[in-house]
Write a structure and sequence with these properties.
The protein is built from six helices and three strands; from the N terminus they run H-H-H-E-H-H-H-E-E. It is mainly alpha-helical. The relative contact order is 0.15. One of its GO terms (molecular function) is DNA replication origin binding.
Length: about 170
């Protein structure tokens, strides 16, 4: 008999995307000698899809999920991924700021407006807050569409969790 299990498939896809995607960005590296703090599915990587990151945080929450706390945790994971990649150039190579002779690289100063310089500083310091908000809202909307959460009438800054456990 054909017995589809869509909920189990969706939960597996969101909890362990490396099974379906078979890509290197979702592969969870095993560290020899590291204490086992749970299953490998519990590890949240910043390279995973936003909905997968939000789902893994969702699984850790209780019946009511505070949206601000969820957003903050999501932003921290994205920042962690940015910290890993910080210091690399476009080719993925680390930039040591040294020229061929070992002296620091010097570039010609270009005239920039103060606003353009401020935008460059923000990009170097971290992720754009509006981009993080947009990615968060998109992921939350996908989880709501799939039936994992619903808004509450009592607390406007919370959502209610609708699923429990893995089937």
């Amino acid at each position: 008999a054909f017995l589809p299990q869509p909920r189990a498939s969706i939960q597996t896809a969101l909890g362990q995307p490396e099974i379906y995607l078979n890509c290197d960005c979702c592969h969870i590296p095993s560290v020899p000698g590291a204490p086992a703090r749970g299953s490998l599915a519990d590890v949240v990587l910043p390279t995973q899809h936003d909905t997968c990151i939000l789902f893994k945080l969702y699984v850790e929450c209780g019946r009511m999920i505070n949206m601000y706390d969820w957003f903050t945790a999501f932003g921290m994971i994205l920042e962690r991924g940015l910290d890993v990649n910080r210091g690399r150039d476009d080719d993925g190579q680390y930039d040591d700021d040294n020229g061929k002779d070992g002296s620091p690289k010097r570039k010609r100063a270009k005239k920039k407006s103060i606003k353009a310089a401020a935008v460059d500083v923000d990009k170097k310091q971290g992720l754009d807050q509006k981009e993080v908000q947009a990615r968060f809202i998109s992921g939350v909307a996908e989880l709501q569409f799939m039936g994992f959460i619903k808004p509450t009438n009592r607390k406007t800054d919370h959502v209610m969790r609708l699923t429990w456990g893995n089937i």
